[in-house]
Structures are given as structure tokens and as C-alpha cells.
Known about the structure:
By secondary structure, the protein is mainly alpha-helical. The protein contains eight helices and seven strands.
Amino acid sequence: xxxxxxxxxxxxxxxxxxxxxxxxxxxxxxxxxxYSALGPIDPQVxxxxxxxxxxxxxxxxxxxxxxxxxxxxLTQAEFxxxxxxxxxxxxxxxxxxxxxxxxxxxxxxxxxxxxxEVHNTNPDLKGQPVTLAQKEQRAEEIAALLSDNNxxxxxxxxxxxxxxxxxxxxxxxxxxxxxxxxxLIREYYDLLSxxxxxxxxxxxxQTKCFI
Length: 211
């Protein structure tokens, strides 16, 4: 996309979870309304049985059992569960988590924060220029929060504009009160959804060449 366009904006009329959230973070702007939601960035990976599983859930559970072992509180049943974990599989989960976070940090700094030149919310830094190190630190904080499984509890947990702006301090373009724009986006999205459902398309991408 960046090969063809200098500016890429993401409009989320409904929801964008997991990889969709990361994709949105690669945009110059994210447009949402009161109904829209992003989600945590818990990567879904295939286990040795070929099933898709939440990587962070497995890693959190293993870390919990390891801590219980250190505290000498591990039960025999939990020891058996911990012993049966495939180390290579767990390493793959860790790599998936690291890749997810590194992509989000890279794209936030390169695209979403590229026009962030002056601090305007932090009272201690207000009016001062934003350094590259500060952009990287902010991106790392956002990545850490979005990948915190203990915070969101569920891979499908919706994160609305209020939470994104207040807790994650991520700037969102809110079109909730722009009546004309909101109606146009909703009409387009409903039409596109109905069409994709009719042709039973799991994925549908519309370009200016397809009408």
C-alpha cells in the first residue's frame, strides 16, 4: 500500500481486532465513531494439532505455572501440564508476540507519529518539540498495553475511542458528530457487507478499479 500511496488512512465503521488493529496502526490517521472498536494484539498461531490458538494465553499460563513453581506452590497436576508443553512451540509463540509488538512500534513511529511535532497533552512537556526517542517510547507503551493479556482478559475485547484516547493516549479521528460523513460511511459499509455475504467472500477488497 505504501508503494502506491503517500498517505494511508483507516476507517473503522465496525471493528478491527488483532491483526486488524496492527494494520490500523500503520496508517497516518484512524477514523472511528462511537460504535467502532479496535482490539488487543494477541497473535493467533497454529499449534502442533493445526488449531489456531491465542499465543499470549499460552505464554501467560506458562509464566504463571513457572512462578508457582518458584514459590513452591505448584500442584502435581500443574507440574504435569507444565512438563507437557512443547518448548519449540512456546518459542514460536514468543516470536509471534515479539514480531507483533515490533511491527506496531515501527509503524506507529514511521506513520502515525510522523506529524507529531509538539507535545500538547503532557503538562510538563507542553509546547516542546517531540524527539524520535519520545515517539519510540510512546509507541512501546501503546504496544505493551495492547498486548497485555491480563489487562484485556479476552482476545475479542472491544476497545472504544474513549479508552484508546484516554488510557492509551492514541489520537483518533472521531467522526461521530459529523452526520453527513457518518451516514455515508455507514451506507457504504452496509452495502459492502451485504455484497460480501451474498457472494460468500471470506475476504473482500475493493479498489477504485472495482465498481
